[in-house]
Amino acid sequence: MNYTLNQLRIFLKVVQLRSITKAAEALHLTQPAVSIQVKNFQDQFEIPLIEVLNKKIYVTDFGQEVAASAEQILQEVEGIQSKLHAFKGELSGKLKISVVSTGKYIAPYFIADFIQTHRNVTLLMDVTNKAQVVESLEKNQVDFALVSVLPDKLNIEKEELMQNKLFLVGNNATNTPKSKHAKKVFQDLPIIYREKGSATRFVMEKYFKELQIPAKMTMELTSNEAVKQALIAGLGFSIMPLIGLRNELEQNQVQIIPIQGLPLISTWHLIWLKDKKLDLVARAFLRHIQSNKQEIIADKFAWHEKY
Predict the structure, then answer these.
(1) Which of its termini does the chain have fewer beta carbons within 10 Å around, N or C?
(2) What is 5-86's CATH topology?
(3) 3-class DSSP state for residue 228?
(4) pLDDT for residue 227
(5) What's this model's pTM, rounded to 2 decimal places?
């Protein structure tokens, strides 16, 4: 056997993505380069690792075993590199965070100084909806999750960050409802919803249910950016997090509509599994958050605190 770490890395990525093309994109290599390395790796085994049927990649049982070993080997190599940096007094490794979609407006500001200070730390940040964020945390695929609604079925630890405020928002050219009574307003307004699994939708539907409001859903969109564009175009109204509306408010593209029971207020939390043993990088990041969060909020989010 004479395979290289590079071949292990490439083969593992092909197995994970089930695609030569996607693996090439993820590794920033050309497709032919990946194909050649996979072939050279396969040539060292008498048993097939993968099979291509109808242009789809299928991993054999033996291939799965090799991929699992490859992942373990690469983790060990990464551990050696981390130990090398540790002996040199440097922090090294990966910081894995899953962030709910509206969290993308705050997460970079809480992370930036830490990453800039520790140049040998690689950030892996996934931005998706609440359901997928909770799933990635439950499966122990990440160190931390950033959420505005705490999961009720996971045993977690948490660090409070800042408030998340949700207002009724509409196009700035739209006539605002004269009444502030929620039931009267919402029975006539076309409401734009986020998709199921979204924390914003969860909070909005909870509000409607508590006040027994028969809101009329006019459309369902899969991101806050899409909702904002629909609002600007005058397609309806929505209850949205203030954190993602700064530019649109300053440019008078949207307006906050005062109404009974709003804003809805939740809290952004950094959470992690209670029994998880955080590694050196994760522990250092948590200390960074605990020591610097108030300064970050005051410096970056003073505008948000005024509403």
Answers:
(1) N
(2) Arc Repressor Mutant, subunit A (1.10.10)
(3) helix
(4) 92
(5) 0.70
